[in-house]
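User: I'm new to structure prediction. If I give you an amino acid sequence, what do you actually give back? Let's try with this one:
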Amino acid sequence: MNSYKIVARKEIYQGRIVNVYLDDVELPGKMTVKREIVLHHREGVGILPVDSDGGIYLVRQYRHPLFKHVLEIPAGIAEAGESPETCAGRELEEEIGYRAAKLTFLVAANNTVGVSNDKIHLYVAEGLTKTTQNLDVDEILEIEKYSLAACEEMIATGEIIDSKTILAIYAYKLMARE
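Assistant: Good question. You get back a string of structure tokens that encode the predicted 3D arrangement of the chain. For your 178 residues, that looks like this:
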């Protein structure tokens, strides 16, 4: 494989969740190009909660980069030293107020490989028991319940646009067939 080499890096922004850099990258053949990259401090998780009737719980919340509300699976960022599975259980209870008897790993994916190292671990949560929702102070969301068929229809019509949600729904569907 050809080697790529960072010859210069300028930090543009240092944040709580991400850092942004402008890199000068030497390509094979010695040409140098600029690359903007976003490096996440920690990995994320997404949870597809499925109840005993096959109902799937999604959350609708405002996503500022899109300037609109988005329908998606509950998700969050792991705390320092927290495993993805532990984070999934915590985020499930915090966001929708349910605890899972069983968390099954679906897939891990990098969302925007051209500009970011953002990685998410996706789980299906089953054996749900109602507890208490415990949202962060800046989280405002609505919990909605749909069938798998309704979720697929909303993907087809563009109602569900969030990539982690689409991936979780189809990974779950594949897992259910096996």
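You can read the tokens as a compact description of the fold. Here is one thing that stands out. The longest strand covers residues 98-110.
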